[in-house]
Design a protein that fits this description.
The protein has about 475 residues and is an alpha/beta fold. It is about 35% helix and about 15% strand. Helix 3 packs across helix 5, helix 5 runs antiparallel to helix 6 and helix 6 packs across helix 9.
Amino acid sequence: MAKDNKGFLKIKRKKGKYRPVEERVGDFCDVTVSRSDDDSVEQATRCMDCGTTFCHWACPVGNYIPEWNELLAKGDWDKAYELLSATNNLPEITGRVCPALCESACVLGINDEAVTIRENELAIAEHAFKTGKVKGKKVEKRTGKKVAVIGSGPAGLAAADELNKKGHHVTVFEKDRKIGGFLRYGIPDFKLEKWVLDRRVDLLKKEGVDFKTDVKVGEGFKTGDLVNDFDAVCLAGGSRFPRDLAIEGRDSEGIVFAVDYLSEANKKVSGEKTAQPKALDARGKHVIVIGGGDTGADCIGTANRQGARSIVQLEVLPEPPECRTEDYPWPKHPLVLKTTSSHEEGAARKWAVSTKKFISETGQVKKLECVQVEFSAPEGACPVMREIEGTEFTLDADLVILAIGFLSPEHKGLLDELALEYDKRGNVKTDQSHKTSRKKIFACGDMHRGQSLVVWAIHEGREAAKNIDEYLTSSR
């Protein structure tokens, strides 16, 4: 099938569709409606095959976007998947949860709507699984070298996949009961159903990767054994130390971190037993989500499905514009207002709000004391936040979810026992080859770069694996 090179002049962007709100809030299944193969092929013809591929430049893993879009437009699904999987170990996952930095940099986006790159990626990946293109192949030739990967999130899975393909014996250690890290316990099923993750993990098992769950290295598995038993160690444990809000009343019941709330909800959905209190359930409660990012939106969607009485999301920054401004010129990823499927399901959003105090009754949070703020930036200085006099207000609250990010990886335990150096932000310090301050110990993902995107974690895992392989092969 020949590609129509003028498709971008004739075909408009076809936006993805969601299931009706009244239907999807009744379950935790995927909110999206899958596109037909014909629609995917048609949308791929919008790719201009431009000479300077800014989409490729913006993609952390360096996906060959124009090339596999052209193959998709020609109906060559198999070759499109071969090219896609050459740079991305988890395309069926990034195709669902990536914020698509590539689309912000699409050349067509200068004067039209960008190509549906993320949805095209997902279509290629799912077509490959559906047609049996994706098969687990055991590695025939082994090097005899053993590598331990600590953490099974996107960075750990990407590193394990790459190292296994190089012929090394890879063992992935995960402290939770199931593999996936934040992919499993941090992202709700309505964005990423866990059969998608299980399918990929099963492939890695078939290819020879060994997974050990319910093992916290440093406790269930001694740090000394880790160093002695393996030729190299890849730390990919993520950034799990949450940012807190140290204000009056913080010790009240009913104030929880987003990661704890989402993890508990995901475990319930999967039928995994938990020992968490009922306080982590939003049913019948006035819910306040502090933090305006994607994690906060995930909390909103979860609370709606649990039957929250009301939901308010607070963000300390002012409301972003709906369109790209001159502060974020193309091809930069712009700061614009993002309304997710969770917001569409029901939640009040309040911008430029600072929480001053948690008010409790008999130890249980009942209200938030808040104030409106504004930011001013003296010439040559950073913006300074200032409270606006006379704008104080209170909000009812039975459950407050803190979704304000993470500070660093957890130092206590494994990292401190390894006596590793940290950077000024508290992340594991490495050189350009992902080597830590200790011999044969490498680090990647959020544990190394700080809290970031799934696609950046995959990139980090791949880069760390490349450097670990070079280290192992040069020391034979």
